Amino acid sequence: MLLPGWVITLVTQIAVTIGFLKHLVTAMMAFFPWQISEKFNNVHHGIIPLVLVKTIVL
Questions:
Q1: Domain ranges for the chain
Q2: The model scores a pTM over 0.85
Q3: Which of 7, 37, 40, 44 has the smallest CB count inside 10 Å?
């Protein structure tokens, strides 16, 4: 039995969204302790958005 196109599209979109959220959470978890330790340093303001953009692109 072939699934209708919209079902395949929906499942694909959900899978992509879940994959994206997992990448986002992983990136945030990796940088969260570092961000706290560097709280008084302005470097993380430039690096974290760069990582998030890179995660979104990948």
A1: 5-57
A2: no
A3: 40
